[in-house]
Specification:
Elements (H helix, E strand, L loop, with lengths): L2 H12 L7 H11 L1 H4 L24 H10 L14 H17 L9
Length: about 110
Amino acid sequence: MNQHERFELMAADLDRLALVPDDIVQEIVIRGAGCLWLYGPVLDTDHSQGESVPPGSRCQVWRACLELELRTPGPYSGGVCSGLSDEEFRELHRVWFTRRGRMGGERGPLT
């Protein structure tokens, strides 16, 4: 799997959150993922299956956290334990934003 295919899989995985309002996604992250963007632990990640956080991770809200990060203005606002470099995050954002446009609307950045 090449890098673009990996990002397509990751973005497709986040499609389940496309219609969730920004404030709800943010609430999910605040309530369920205090360890991620508040404290920023470092985890080794395996993106071979298109997942942004490894399946063994204890985080229950990593999808919402990554979704919120993608909706947040700026090139990389930091805080997501996705294991992506800034360059990879920008590429994922491009793929994610394109997918959302094809879905009939934009879901980001936060307004």
